[in-house]
Amino acid sequence: MMISMPACLSRFNWKTLYTGILEGLKVFAFYLAVLSLFRGFFIAWMAPYMGPGTGVHDIFLALWRGFRLSMQTAGALTLVSFVPGLLLHFFKAQWGRRVVLALNGVLLSVLSILFVASFPFYRQFHANFNQMLFTGANDDIYALFITMVQQYYLPVRLAGALLLACVLWRGLRALLSCAWLENCTDGVRLPAFVRWLGRLAFLCLTYIVVLLGIFGGSLGWQTAVNWENAGVTRDEFLNECILDNVQAIYRAYNLNERMLACNGLDFTTEDIRNLAAKLSGKPADTDDLDVYLTKEAQGPQIERPTQVIVILSESFANWPLLDKYKDIPISHGMRGLIAEDDTDYCPTFLPNGASTVSAVTGVVTDFADANLYLTTMPESFAAPYPTASAPQMEKLGYETNFWYAGPSTWERIGAFTQAQGFEHFYSRGDFGDVPGSVWGCEDEVLYEKVLDGLDPATPSFNVLLNASNHSPYDLDLAAKGFDKEAVREALPEDHQQDEELLKELGHYWYADRELAKFVQAVKAKCPDSLIVIVGDHGDRYNIDKTPTMYERYGIPFIITGKGIHKGTLLPDAAGSQIDIMPTIYELIAPKGFSYMAVGSSLTRTNRQGVNYGFFITRHAIGKADIVPLVPESVDGTEPVLDQQAMENYINGVRSVSWWRPKYGAILDETKLEGRR
């Protein structure tokens, strides 16, 4: 018998709404408890996979971080059953309950199967569910099935998983049947304002739970925990355990989608051969790209430094170093460093991409951004690319270290850098309980750890990636000594009340100050060091609401150390992050040293830079994807540009940076057949 609309609406009252929402909260709490218990049991059962030196603190950190992350998973699972159940609840409560139980029976079965499967999966791959799920989907399904039956006892495990699901389902049903909270106020006469106050408090609590479910244990995106920033312990096993099975599959899906999106660019092999030849100045007489990428150092320009340090500073734009902003006291550290006799500075420099990961891949592999997500591609993990910086610095006699302020799981940075040849990788998980934001420890902490790790007697190459100058911009700037009022007074009048801008500028000030202090400390401990400082990207905040292209996207290139002087860099030098390592090779490598790179040295030849969307010279900047190119002035002078030469440079850098990491050294047109 159909329920009439008036009858349906008559069911819509506070009691019905309260009961429906409370049921959803119970389901949320139940899933959160189940996921947390799964995690705790997995850690206890698989404890031998923990690394030496892992302590109780690390375990509790993993459990707490995972608990927060699983709030997001629990929220999503609750939503699947809660929405249809709540809607049906207004028509007929019994229907709503049956739908909720049925849907949760399916979800608990899936969770239980995944949980049971996660044990053999980790033993096989030493990871929670990852991209191998999608690789396996393209494999021989019959062979996989037989393997799972014979080697992993699939029928037994499946039966155990379903039994576990049955137990959990009965537990959820018992929880939902317990109506104490629903009926606790029945028969109690309360004043109207008390009832309304209680209802408001209940709705506020529900709102908070919803936020925690959306943002992974946080009340906003600024401090949200997600699969990319979750791994903060120093143990890889625990970092994997932080992800519940649903989050691990979500990670695998995201990484697989990024990999499938690596379609690269649209060049023929003939195009690439000719462009690579123009880029290298060699004849176009071979299909071996490595021939065009191979260079010989012209001889050292400075005495061999013991420590070589490249600092990728988060959101460290170049515009605060321009003369027009010199009165705003946020860049005294770098301005002072640039003025030193042992420092040179290139103000026309571009990041490799719009985000930090592109800066990392640019320095680690020397490939330009070419629509390839290198940190997810299987090719990146098979062996270091021949252009990779770490193996080439190792050939020069340096121990290689990568230091990151954040978690090793972000963008798979730990696995990626080590796959590309870095001997050591250090991240926040190695530093212990240190202050910082969701993105990483404070800059001063990172620099202290790096400084402690430098041995004046041991040659080392170190790449540093900091994180403090990043939203949510939550440093206690007053405690750090930031003079906000001095900055406010120096701003244009219409910006002086912009508190958000002041906070952002304060974080730039902090990054600048700590950089300067670190450089001074390195020079004091290791006087013969060579230090390169660049931003990872610009384009995050500006004082001007409509900044010029140069002010918006430019980053600084600062090089300092023993033997460096004004004029070390070409007077009209310009470049991008793929030119960092060739500049270092040409400064320190012996004459005839063979190295491979897409970029070239700012001390020898490089007078232009290109990235994902822009080109730059000493006097011009413009969008790289417009033909003809339209240059804008960098310094107020009339921009002069050799159109054809710049187009060849842009296409050469991009085409080589696309083909070589994706398809290998040999140009073979058949490799493009069936390309997505």
Molecular structure report:
The protein is α/β, with parallel strands linked by helices. It contains 25 helices and 16 strands. The strands form four sheets. Strands 5-4-8-2-9-10-3-11 form an eight-stranded mixed β-sheet, sandwiched between helices. Helix 18 (413-419) links the parallel strand 4 (399-404) and strand 5. Helix 2 packs antiparallel against helix 3, helix 2 (14-45) runs antiparallel to helix 7 and helix 3 (56-89) packs antiparallel against helix 4 (93-125). The chain is globular, with a radius of gyration of 29 Å. Residues 1-10 have low confidence and may be disordered.
How would the blueprint of this fold be written?
Blueprint: H1 5-10, H2 14-45, H3 56-89, H4 93-125, H5 132-137, H6 141-150, H7 154-177, H8 180-183, H9 192-214, H10 236-242, H11 245-260, H12 269-280, H13 289-293, E1 294-296, E2 307-313, H14 332-339, E3 343-350, H15 356-365, H16 378-382, H17 389-395, E4 399-404, H18 413-419, E5 424-426, E6 436-437, E7 440-441, H19 443-453, E8 460-465, H20 477-480, H21 484-490, H22 499-525, E9 530-535, H23 549-553, E10 555-561, E11 575-576, H24 580-588, E12 594-596, E13 609-610, E14 614-616, E15 620-623, E16 632-633, H25 643-663
Parallel strand pairs: 2-8, 2-9, 3-11, 4-5, 4-8
Antiparallel strand pairs: 1-12, 3-10, 6-7, 9-10, 13-14, 14-15, 15-16
Helix pairs in contact: 2-3, 2-7, 3-4, 3-9, 3-10, 4-7, 12-25, 14-22, 19-22
